[in-house]
Specification:
CATH architecture: Roll
Number of domains: 1
Strand content: 25-35%
Number of helices: 3
Largest sheet: 4 strands, mixed
CATH superfamily: 2,3-Dihydroxybiphenyl 1,2-Dioxygenase, domain 1
Radius of gyration: 15 Å
Shape: globular
CATH class: Alpha Beta
Length: 139
Amino acid sequence: MDYETVDAEEFGRSLSGLGLNLLVRDVPAQCAFLAAVFGLAAQRVSVDFAIVPYGGQVFQLHSDATYHSNPLLGLVPESPPRGGGIEIRLYETDPDRAAGRAEAAGAMILQPPTDKPHGLREAYILCENGYAWVPSRRL
């Protein structure tokens, strides 16, 4: 599927399994963070929306304005952290490289790359929207 040209209806019908939509203050800025830290190439980037492919799946970024009539918007805090309590795990992403890039991008490292007893090396990186991104690799 060409995410740059697919219309909204066809894209919506194509979704299956588990979906992830992240509500963010600034979609292009979040896309820039994802590219700089994790090498992710967002598609269909606008001030309101982006599609982010990763590992054969996609997740979506939406601006606050796109949720104007969505009941969830009233629950989103005005002050960070927005994403408190959620981990967005990027398996097969080098945590050491991501942490280095995150520091250069000014992101907060909640936990530096660490070997964990569950068989993964992972880091916790907090983006400006308050989401915890967890790049990890198998040990």
